[in-house]
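Per reviewer request, we include the raw input and output of the structure prediction for the construct analysed in the revised manuscript.
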Amino acid sequence: MNPDYMRQALDLAREGMGRTSPNPAVGAVLVQGGEVVGRGTHTYAGVKHAEILALEEAGERARGSTLYISLEPCCHTGRTGPCADALIKAGIARVVAAMEDPNPRVAGSGFRRLREAGVEVEIAHQSAAEAARINEAFVHFMRTGRPLVTVKAAVTLDGKIAAPEDNRGWITSETARADVQRLRHLSDAIVTGIGTVLADDCLLTDRSGLERSRPLLRIVLDSQLRLPLASKMVRSASGDVVAATTSAASAQRRRALEEAGVAVWTMDAPDGRVDLRALVERLARESYLSLMVEAGSKVNWAFLESGVADKVYFYYAPKILGGAALPMIGGAGRRSRSEAILLHGVEIHPIPPDEFAVEAYLS
């Protein structure tokens, strides 16, 4: 295996991030006689898979070539035909893939079909972790059947998200906030609490300016349907805003929101609040691969305590509020250190000059 060609395939896959859901981001490179003769990046809007785009660019030079690809070629018919069959027909001699497709409909079947047709197959295990990271939400969804849930917060060094009186301005820098837009771009859905909407009149849109496979679904946890009709979220709704509520909410408020273009989902939890597990299951049924939580301290705690959250992404600014300032995690909390919620796989992402983000997974 030539690592340079696999690097190119992984870089091409990255170009599809945020542009492929519910499909994976895939990059493909065809090499003939030491020369790259075809490249491809899958996007949902473009329909064609990366392998097909690479084959089309290569033309007759594809015959006898080696394909470097970030994910196992598919072997089933969806919006397109099986890529494994197209590779066999084109006369590809060898396929080097970074990882097996976790989709149960593929899961090694693509490799098997290629080998049965006489195509040499190699799995580049040294690139598997990076390839899986590019498609983190897709891999998680295929292995668990539910979207990857990330709790995001912007906090001071002492873990505060809001001052008790004056909350004008931002906790983190413009650079850090731009990175948040990157996370939003990579998310299929975003959720907040009604308290945050009432306090900030937020939009919760993807302002990265990058192409998406579908609109970012904006969700408000609102057990009493207090979401104002004049709020920015309601006024900007275009099939992309959901009020998640309970059966205790007013039928009149429900009708008003629905007439304004807001979808209303009723999902009751035993405590009278919105059932977070039911929310995640609903998103899974509609093939949303990822959900980002951008909310206040109580909602953050609810996602962490319920076991619904899979990871955290906390942005830290070089500031201290102390005192009665609001912590990023509220709720009842744990009563002893031995009961603390445990994290693993911790990564620190520097944000020059003085900020950083902490990414970690719940155990």
